[in-house]
Amino acid sequence: MERESFEDNEVAALLNRYFVSIKVDREERPDVDHLYMAFCQALTGSGGWPLTIMMTPEKKPFFTGTYFPKTERYGYKGMMELLEQVGTLWAKDEEKLRDSADQIVAAVHSGRSLPDKTAAPISDLKDSSESFKTWGNGVLSKAYSILAQSFDPRYGGFGQAPKFPTPHTLTFLLRYAEDHPKDKALEIVRKTLDGMALGGIYDHVGFGFARYSTDEKWLVPHFEKMLYDNSLLALAYLESYQVSHFPKDAQLAQEIFTYVLRDMTSPEGGFYSAEDADAEGEEGKFHVWTPQEVEAVLDKETAAKYCAVFDITPKGNFEGKNIPNLLLGNIKKVAQDNSLSEEEVLQSLENARQALFAEREKRIHPHKDDKILTAWNGLMIAAFAKGAQVLGNNTYLEAAEKATTFILTQLRRGDGRLMARYREGDTAYLGYLDDYAFLIWGLLELYSANGKPQVLQTALQLQVEQDRLFHDEEGGGYYLTGSDAEELLFRPKESYDGAVPSGNSITALNLLRLARFTGDERWERKAEQQLLDFRSVLEEHPSGYTAFLQALQFALHPSQELILAGSLNSKDLPEMRQLFFSTFRPFASVLYQEGSLSDTVPWIKDYPLDPSQVTAYLCENFTCQTPVHQVEEFRTLLENS
């Protein structure tokens, strides 16, 4: 539409004659996007982008749609005809359009409150822990059953094409598998992670995942790369590595981080938003290869091996060219022919990959969206911090810390208010719920990785600010926009976990984790209320709320804490920390008693601090085992816990 209409002089003339034209970046203004997408879905039965809205000066829509060509074709009404018709109708019968807009607003508004909370509240169930467990486990089992039914056993993933990664569904299933090892949850995760890693949705030359696959096999992606997908997928592969210790999982997480540090990190440390699918006006042109292009870079023998392994043929697998992929399993034959393992074959082609990457760098690159969004940076901070925990890599910890410093310096006002977007020195837009929730998540992971008390203190401050600005005292849950934001027709509220988890889902888990960290009952009460507020939707459609369900899983599990008492500079501390994070412990909290945390967590004073050594206290259900001081003693303690 941009090329066909908005940059066309004839269309522009009609737009300027009849309308005040407004173009919205939905990543900068998700509040506007959420609000008017609700109108589009209500009026047309579907939605999508580009989103086209015609409204009164009071911002009340009377016409919505998605794509319109310049002139009518293929059954689509044309922009020229549409603009002329609406302009004429407004001139002749403005009141009719205004009445229609009023009716539309009233209808949509009446349907946007949270589900009725008159059912037996969770607080009642809490009176009986068995009743709460029965209710919660029933919801979790229902979600698993729905996902298992929609699982594609041949290629992995869920449903039919197009296929989206939805990594929070995979991390839900990893937690479900902990409690239900006889079910197939772990198999579903393994097949899906492997399928994506083999397919063209993964960039085998330059690393990083594309946004989604247009086919069921994960072969042909929509080539756009989003920061949020790569953040959440890195977390999924890291957690899978904790469960299975499958080396490829760790490698994929590391390669995602390599891509982000190389291509998506600003000099100041913030993370850019996305890379486009198109280059030179063609989708995927930057990423595809012919055998001749490979042969021009590599020697004949290596080129033949690379093309055989990565399915690069004269026929092509995408519009006459080739998306490198491992789906056909050709690597097995190459491995057998060369008496190598598959891992050794790939390692032998690493120099070839680097040479092809260097050659690809000479091509015209897709456009990079270099705005820095607080919310998506929160996700990547969480991912890098988790990478530091699991892999013990200080580079990842430094990246998380540098991004955090950047966000708190450049995207937080003097009064503490978070902002949403930064680009080239310009900070704009009051932060949304996702900005707070995702950044708090990132800070909690960062604290778990570095133990610095100010990180946990900042997370607590932001949660207090989030409650003040976003909580809906009457309807429950959290609004997308703050009470100080621009006044729209009504304040949107989102709970569905789509390509990105909702801020309400992540907040539920943040509140529970803050309760475990601090021992402060108010956070637990708020978390229980958050579960209560969304009880109906969790029961009705649990598979659409897999990030929210991870909060429910956390609430159902006994508390487990590791307290590491001693200097943060102790030589034993990194090894103890990595031992703890080497296995999957999704319901555990790690606290560091380094002398000043008691200002934030008063109960930590009960754990004596010896500056000359690290003392490890492992506690479960408010009962601690005998503290240990040596790394090997700690290893034994973990093995027996």
Keywords:
641 residues; alpha+beta; four-stranded mixed sheet; three-stranded antiparallel sheet; 16 strands; Ssp411; Thioredoxin domain-containing protein; 6-hairpin_glycosidase_sf; Ssp411-like_TRX
Written description of the protein model:
It contains 26 helices and 16 strands. The protein is 51% helix and 9% strand. The protein is of the alpha+beta class and 641 residues long. Helix 19 packs antiparallel against helix 20 and helix 19 runs parallel beside helix 21. Residues 1-108 form the Spermatogenesis-associated protein 20-like TRX domain. Pfam families: Thioredox_DsbH.
List the helices and strands and how they pair.
Layout: H1 2-6, H2 9-18, H3 30-44, E1 52-55, E2 61-65, H4 79-92, H5 94-110, H6 122-126, H7 129-150, H8 167-179, H9 185-198, E3 212-213, E4 221-222, E5 225-226, H10 227-244, H11 247-263, E6 274-275, E7 278-279, E8 282-283, H12 291-295, H13 300-309, H14 330-337, H15 342-348, H16 350-360, E9 368-369, E10 372-373, H17 374-391, H18 394-410, E11 419-423, E12 426-430, H19 433-450, H20 453-470, H21 503-518, H22 521-533, H23 535-540, H24 546-556, E13 560-565, H25 573-581, E14 588-593, E15 615-620, E16 623-624, H26 631-639
Parallel strand pairs: 13-14
Antiparallel strand pairs: 1-2, 3-4, 5-6, 6-9, 7-8, 10-11, 11-12, 13-15, 15-16
Proportion of β residues? 5-15%
Sheet bearing the most strands, described? 4 strands, mixed
Spatially, the strands of the biggest sheet line up as 14-13-15-16
* Global shape: globular
Helix content: 40-55%
Kindly, what is the distance between the CA atoms of the first and last residues, rounded to a whole number of angstroms? 59 Å
> What is the averaged pLDDT score?
91
- Radius of gyration equals 26 Å
The count of helical stretches stands at 26
Q: Which structural class best describes the helix and strand composition?
A: alpha+beta
What's the β-strand tally?
16
**Unreliable stretches, pLDDT < 50, 5 or more residues?**
112-128
